[in-house]
Amino acid sequence: MFSVNQPIALPAEQPPQLIVVIDTEEEFDWGAGPDRSKTSVSAMQHIDRVQNIFDQYGIVPCYVVDYPVVSQAQGVALLRQYHSEGRCEIGAHLHPWVTPPYDEEVSAFNSYAGNLPAELERKKLQAMVDKITEVFAKRPTIYKAGRYGLGSNSSAIMEQLGFEVDVSVCPPVDYRADGGPDYSRAHAQPFWFGSDNGLLELPVTGAFVGWAGALQRPLYNMAGKLQKFKAKGILSRLSAVDRLMLSPEGFSSQEHIKLTEYLLKRGVRTFTWSFHSTSVKPGMAPYVKTEQDLAEFLDSFRRYFDYFFTQLKGEATTPSLLKQKLESYR
């Protein structure tokens, strides 16, 4: 199991730092199991819908691309332009079931790359590195495991392949139900890891929020077993505990601000705005089904960025630049 280390202490005077990470991937049925035949990337023709917002706010996002995206012209046409113009960073995103070599059985358990035999996990990530280097003429140094699926061999493989930053850890979610990792006790702050602590983890921004304190996690888990009584909703209305993520997918602008202020009070200074590329085209992901959904989805970007840069006086950065900054605090 991938281990979470002690957080990096940032100075209190450090302005909040915002990175944007896009899980840039193929289109598939989220309600079905992994399927090797699902490799369409038609949504990538519309990725300018979010890139134009990033440009407006001076944000350089990080597109972590998977094999179906990087191996098809339709998937990379706009990204190559953005990358060549310095308007984005490119990282690797490993969906094992659609990444060669195809040596494993397709299953929910094997959809988490960290569950694969170490050599197969390495070969698949090597295939990603090779393809990204070929297409973008630059070796990727940023990694995000598909389904947040880090395992006990993942850090050593990242080191072998020259990665410097990982953005896979997803607090406070527990994915053990179908074989994934448990991040329910993880924190949202960056930390060093690897054999010589040379790798940087920038977790997804998420947390249990509420007045329940140490009881947040057990209360939330108990509520999950009482779904027919809508226990999670009751706990949320009581402000006892909410499980919130800094994502425009499934969370409101009010929740984004609530989460941010909760974490700021607890010393968190780095924040990751994350979502899936498929959400830029209605009907490709469960969060954006209609044109109205799309308009609300995009408006939530602007509302949060206005809040972060105006009210909080925060700064936009990238995984690579943030690593340089955090190294200066060692």
TrEMBL record:
InterPro entries: Glyco_hydro/deAcase_b/a-brl. It comes from the Bacteria. One of its GO terms (biological process) is carbohydrate metabolic process. This is Polysaccharide deacetylase family protein. It comes from Dasania phycosphaerae.
